Amino acid sequence: GLGGIAGGGLGLGGSRSLPGAGAAGALGGAGLAGLTGAGSLGGGGGGGAGALAMPPGGVPGIPASSGGMPPASSGGAGGAPTSLAGAGVSETLVLDLTNPDARENALLELSKKREQFPDLAPFLWHTPGVVAALLQEIVAIYSLLSPPSLTAHASNRVCNALALLQCVASHHDTRSLFLQAHVPLFLYPFLNTVSKTRPFEYLRLTSLGVIGALVKVDDTDVINFLLSTEIIPLCLRTMEMGSELSKTVATFIVQKILLDETGLNYICATAERFFAVGAVLQNMVNTLAEQPSVRLLKHIIRCYLRLSDNPRAREALRQCLPELLRDANFTACLKDDRITRQWLAQLLQTVNTGDGSGAPPPGAPLGQPPSE
Questions:
Q1: Cα 217 from chain centroid (whole Å)
Q2: How far apart are CA 48 and CA 69, in angstroms?
Q3: Helix, strand, coil percentages in the chain from 3-state DSSP, rounded to 5
Q4: How far apart are CA 49 and CA 209, in angstroms?
Q5: Contact at 8 Å (CB) between 154 and 200?
Q6: Per-residue pLDDT of the chain (372 residues; tens, 9 = 90+)
Q7: DSSP-assigned letter for residue 35
């Protein structure tokens, strides 16, 4: 089950199939309350008071009006810039990343100022030692993940490094290099954590922001990389136990994977994969009955609508689509969201009418969950 990814690593060399859905509900818990505000975590360790902020890099799929900084710019000319002068970002700060004594301040200042220079990403990537320094920041807190001992200060520091990596992941000149170097794998241990303290939630949310930046641009190479490295079980874990904001970003990532034909075919290839995703989506809908979130519901509906494009999945959804989605009282929160209401209407019509041919869909049926 999904619980199998805890503790024992990701098994990147083993089977690529998703685990079954049997343990999906066991992850449990709605996570922390919604994340608000802008800026970094409050001081004083993981349990301190105060709202948990939007990560310094922003999160794809979440409007800037939800709090925090907007997503990284993906504009700019090709190649490594030769100077940051006049752009509000100092070359000295970039070079300071390679100096352990000056790195923490450089991380903080660059994460705040990076929006002022759209070509910061190539500059970071092509400056010798800088990416290695950012990866050092990530690896340095692995020992704090289990047993969970991550402080607010340590979380803030590594999240500033992750914000710079999101900048690299967002830029069209560095995205493919970022993937070819398999940098996202360094973030996967953060998504494999289960602690619900603010430092860990902030760490997961910022890590998801990096993955979200990759999928925000339609690129089959990105989808193939994420599927081959088993990102879906990690997203499903967050969708089950994360905060409302983390759930939204993780669902956005799954949505973008589904919107790619390769991703849709992968998830619908076996009953185990389909029901692993379906069980988590259904649990999330049930949770929204008590803790409504329009932005999360929007991504869930889009995932279901995309699944219904697959004939076998469409047949299965006739049996397992949450009844709450047919409840006008439950979906009344979408009254001001015309696009999502259209998606929901299309989903219900598609599931109710099927493909209209009257013939069974090709392939093995997905209509029953896999047996334990």
A1: 14
A2: 23
A3: 60, 0, 40
A4: 24
A5: no
A6: 333 323 333 222 333 333 333 323 222 222 222 222 234 454 333 333 334 455 555 656 555 444 333 333 333 334 444 455 544 457 899 999 999 999 999 999 999 988 888 889 999 999 999 999 999 999 999 999 999 999 999 999 999 999 999 999 999 999 999 999 999 999 999 999 999 999 999 999 999 999 999 999 999 999 999 999 999 999 999 999 999 999 999 999 999 999 999 999 999 999 999 999 999 999 999 999 999 999 999 999 999 999 999 999 999 999 999 999 999 999 999 999 999 999 999 999 999 986 544 444 445 556 555 544
A7: P
- Strand, coil or helix: 214: helix
Closest-CA residue to 156 (of 115, 202, 102):
202
Query: From CA 334, how far away is CA 89, in angstroms rounded?
Result: 42
310 contact partners, CB below 8 Å, separation of at least 6: 264, 265, 268
Task: For residues 253 and 268, give the distance between their C-alpha atoms in angstroms, rounded to a whole number.
Answer: 17
C-alpha angle with apex 222: 304 to 36, nearest 5 degrees? 65
Short-list 157, 95, 91, 97, CA closest to 119: 91
- For residue 136, the 8-state DSSP code is H
CA-to-CA dists, residue 290 to 172, 286, 293, 330, angstroms: 41, 8, 10, 10
Whether 363 and 265 have beta carbons less than 8 Å apart is answered as no
Q: Report residue 107 as tokens.
A: 């991380």
